[in-house]
Design goal:
Blueprint: E1 2-9, H1 22-28, E2 30-32, H2 42-56, E3 60-68, H3 77-94, E4 99-103, H4 116-128, E5 133-138, H5 146-151, E6 154-157, H6 166-181, E7 187-193, H7 207-218, E8 223-229, E9 243-249, H8 252-268, H9 270-273, H10 280-287, E10 294-298, H11 313-320, E11 326-332, H12 334-343, E12 348-353, E13 365-381, E14 387-398, E15 401-406, H13 416-419, E16 430-433, H14 439-443, E17 449-453
Parallel strand pairs: 1-3, 1-4, 4-5, 5-6, 10-16, 10-17, 11-15, 11-16
Antiparallel strand pairs: 2-3, 7-9, 8-9, 12-13, 13-14, 14-15
Length: 487
């Protein structure tokens, strides 16, 4: 059996203030035929797994382009078309193939393309022909379209948020697709539109229980896979919203009935699933009453959702309160990092921090700092055993608040974003991290309390206030309290 794999991965915030060009993919990780042997990006982890599984089973394995960009605005048309065409040309040059495995995101938007994943899959089908099995792995924060389902044989989404199961889902995709190519199964898919816009961490109820229900359903006869597309509310596309996907073994009626059944189970919990978070003021008041290390998620300024990650409101409030034993990060501010590196460790001066990218960044904060540590290259643990590059970085002390500044934009995934530059988390009572949910996987091991905060920035959780143009949200929950009219 011959297997081809490739990937183009980015999560597009269509409201972000700048586009994503080729430099964004080169910074995030761009590999031409060697992703499984170079680097440790999350996409590369999947590539290595596909390679190892293929070789263990005695299959020929060919990899094309793997490209990853940090979440940001729409990809430039020429950049997307260049990468897409490179993937297709390599598949055509080295074909034929029995199986194609695409590691994508699902919420990628380029200028001229609202559904990059479906566009790539449809064109891949034209290249490899109707008999090849095309499998796609997606992030649950995707705009899952019928076009993608129709162009592919099997689509599988990560179930967990934080996305700790990307490799498990990649293994599942490989298994189903190779079995399909061998004629052992016939994947048949159905979608159910839940008519919801939401944000669904799977570490708490009721979403944790729903995930268990999805997993139990997969054990039923005839069910190959169950996926819930959370959707990405900050992407304005015709397919924005939450959907349920069920893949069966050649039984379209079962796929449709199970997708509806599970989709309605999610819909029944729609009120309970709405994000209800304390404000910055409320969260800091609460944190002051709690023992141990309290970690607060600065959800609205999460680079993982396309925000700049340089909003200063949280830091400003900490300083106004005279906070001590606190740390905040990571603020994306290459200019401030460069200034700190030039000044050197131990230098004290007035530094302009953050607030540089636009209205969602708030105003720059001018404050006297002391440079505690600078690193020419810093990184942190990320998803799937990979690492996220933070670039040149600086740790500065602002009175009682330590701040980590980075020059390569990333959400804060793990404690070593702080400890790796010298911050002693064990001495802290409070840590503010610019992340919406992924931070919980790493910080749960070192903290006593984890609290998501309705902060200020580009990733607002007030879905009714998002101004869509391509997507009609008027008939979606929470704007419409009962869009399916079930009473």
């Amino acid at each position: 059996m011959r297997i081809f794999t490739a990937g183009i991965v980015t999560e597009t915030n269509t409201f972000a203030p700048w586009p994503t060009g080729l430099a964004g993919y080169e910074e995030g990780g761009l590999f031409r035929g060697n992703a499984s042997t170079a680097g440790d990006d999350n996409a590369n982890v999947a590539s290595r797994l596909f390679r190892d599984l293929a070789h263990a089973d005695g299959h020929d394995f060919v990899e094309g382009l793997f490209a990853t960009a940090h979440p940001s605005g729409p990809t430039l048309r020429a950049t997307y078309e260049m990468m897409r065409d490179e993937v297709l040309a390599e598949a055509e040059r080295q074909g034929p193939f029995d199986v194609v495995l695409l590691f994508l995101h699902g919420a990628m938007v380029a200028y001229g393309y609202d559904d990059c994943e479906a566009d790539l899959a449809l064109r891949m089908r034209a290249v490899v022909g109707p008999k090849a099995v095309i499998g796609v792995e997606l992030d649950p924060h995707c705009h899952l379209s019928q076009d993608l389902i129709d162009a592919s044989d099997c689509v599988i989404l990560m179930k967990e948020y934080p996305h700790i199961d990307s490799l498990e889902r990649a293994r599942e995709l490989y298994d189903i697709c190779t079995r399909a190519a061998a004629g052992e199964v016939r994947p048949t898919s159905a979608l159910f539109d839940c008519r919801m816009i939401g944000f669904y961490p799977t570490t708490v109820e009721p979403m944790a229980g729903l995930v268990r229900c999805f997993q139990q359903t997969e054990a039923e006869p005839g069910i190959l896979s169950v996926s819930f597309a959370h959707g990405f509310p900050w992407g304005d596309t015709p397919n924005t919203g939450s959907r349920m996907l069920v893949v069966t073994d050649g039984d379209p009626a079962l796929a449709a009935s199970k997708a509806r059944e599970l989709g309605l189970a999610v819909y029944a919990e729609r009120e309970a699933l709405q994000p209800r978070m304390p404000s910055i003021t409320e969260a800091l008041d609460l944190a002051a009453t709690l023992p141990g290390l309290v970690v607060l998620g600065d959800t609205a300024d999460n680079a993982g959702g396309g925000a700049p990650s340089d909003n200063t409101v949280f830091l400003r409030e900490l300083l106004a309160r005279g906070a001590t034993d606190a740390v905040l990060g990571c603020i994306w501010d290459p200019m401030a990092v460069r200034t700190c590196m030039e000044a050197g460790e131990g230098a004290s001066f007035s530094l302009r921090i953050g607030g540089k990218c636009g209205p969602a960044s708030d105003q720059p904060l001018d404050h006297r700092v002391t440079v505690k540590k600078v690193l020419a290259s810093h990184s942190q643990a990320s998803l799937g055993g990979s690492r996220a590059d933070l670039g040149a970085s600086a740790w500065v002390a602002c009175d009682g608040v330590d701040v980590v500044l980075i020059s390569e934009r990333s959400q804060t995934f793990a404690p070593d974003a702080f400890t790796g530059i010298g911050v002693d988390l064990a001495s802290k009572r409070l840590a503010v991290v610019k992340s919406s949910q992924h931070y919980k996987a790493g910080f749960a091991q070192v903290s006593d309390q984890l609290i998501n905060v309705a902060s200020e920035g580009a990733i607002q959780m007030r879905f009714e206030d998002i101004r869509y143009e391509k997507f009609d949200s008027s008939s979606m929950f929470p704007i419409d309290p009962d869009p399916l009219e079930l009473g």
